[in-house]
Amino acid sequence: MNQLTISSKIETCFSIKKLVNLIEVQILELDENLELTSEEIFEIVCQESHLNTDFLKQALGCKCPFALMGFINELEFNEFSHYCVIIEDSNMYSQNVNQPAI
Q: For residues 2 and 37, what is the distance between their CA atoms, to the nearest angstrom?
C-alpha cells in the first residue's frame, strides 16, 4: 500500500469521525426542540448529513436518532459509505449507493 493511499484512508477516517461528532451534536440540539418528534429529528439529520434514511431505517429497524448515534459510532470507516448519498452536481441531485448487506 503506498503512502498516498494510507494518507487518504487516514484522512477519510478522521473526516468520518468529525461527521459522526457533528451528527451527535445536531441530534442533541434538535432533541431540545420539544416540537420535533424522534422520527423528524432522524429525517432532518439524515437529510442534512447526506445519509440514506431508508438504508439506515432498515439497518436499525426504526427511525430513532439515538439509535442512529450508536449505530454510526460503531461503523468502521469503510462501512460508513454504505449509508451515504452521493451528491452528483451542484443542483443537489442525489443517487443512493448500493444497499449494504444486512
A: 47
20 by Cβ neighbours in 10 Å (0-12 / 13-18 / 19+) ranks as: middle
| Dihedral sign, Cα of residue 80, residue 84, residue 89, residue 92 | negative
Q: What percent of the chain has pLDDT over 70?
A: 69
Question: Residue 14: CA atoms inside 13 Å, Cβ hemisphere, count?
Answer: 5
pTM over 0.85: no
C-alpha dihedral, 29 to 64 to 102 to 89, nearest 10°:
-50
Nearest to residue 99, comparing CAs of 76, 85, 44, 29? 85
Angle formed by the axes of helices 3-31 and 65-74, nearest 10°: 160
The tens digit of pLDDT for each residue in 34-59 reads: 799 999 999 999 999 889 999 999 99
